[in-house]
Hints:
The chain is of the alpha+beta class. The protein has a domain at 61-119. The chain is 46% helix and 23% strand. The protein is built from eight helices and ten strands. The chain has helices spanning 27-56, 65-86, 92-119, 125-141, 145-154, 158-168, 191-202, 229-239; strands spanning 2-7, 12-17, 24-26, 169-176, 182-189, 207-214, 217-227, 246-250, 269-276, 291-297. It has a five-stranded mixed beta sheet with strand order 6-7-9-10-8. Helix 1 packs antiparallel against helix 4 (125-141), helix 2 (65-86) runs antiparallel to helix 3 and helix 4 crosses helix 8 (229-239). The longest helix has 30 residues, at 27-56.
Amino acid sequence: MKCKGSGGKKKKYMYYNCEHCKLYYREDLVEECLQDFIYELLEYDMNVKKYFLPILADKKTTDISKLEKEIMQLRTQKERIKKAYVSGIVEMEDFSEDYKLIEEKIDILETKKYEILSLSVSFSPHQLMADRDIERELHIRSNNLKEILKQEWNKKSKEDKQEFISKFIESVVLTKNEKGKLEIDKLNFRHSYIEQLTKFFNAGIFETYYSLDRNGNEEEYRISVNMTEEQLDEYIAQMNKTFDVEFYEMYQNNYTDDYEAELNSKDEKIIRVVAIKDEKKFPISDKENIRIGAVAYTPPPTNVLVAN
């Protein structure tokens, strides 16, 4: 398929078209079809950068001796240039240009050093997950989560969008339904993205979506899998610093049963569902027991402002 532009003076459209079978797809409609999924990836990427980099960091990268050596060499160069300028060996023009270049290099290395030291600080993945959930819930409460993601996406250039999507997706198959509307048929993820999700699973913070019966209606919630009792306690303790949360355990016989959340009040909101299991592996049979529970809280009235 080839990409080309078309349209009038006011608005131009980009098309993907096949010269052999005469099929064509408008680029903006392709993006619209993938929009919800793109926003999910965008939120994931923002959360990784803000909260979960320590989990993905390679422990070998905590050694900063090489960086410190490079910084020391650059500072020595800086002193030599300064002395050469004071001695009248170099002109002001050469001095300022070289001096500024070295300072910029030092700033870059210092930033890298700070990031590595930050990653090596002791942390709890489930406390980080709670912090992320608190921020997300506050955005949802103020109805600006989707707007934040939309702004973040729209400010990207065409090249930035291409780079972002290719970071997660190897390929995507779209089909047209009977009404001619595009639908996602298949998504193939990149190996690097799958590796990240595997690390999150091993850390006990992997999540997916889960259908749950609530007041007679089936709703989708985020569910954490492979979480232990201790990790759940850490998560709830951190959540309780901002919200007064409750954990409701739901009855179950085996992994294939349907679950229903029976909360104390219909006004309570489920933040996430949790699958508690000490063994770090998926169930090997449909008869293997696993405890399912819901973390919920009662939001304040909509007319009450919440300080973030």
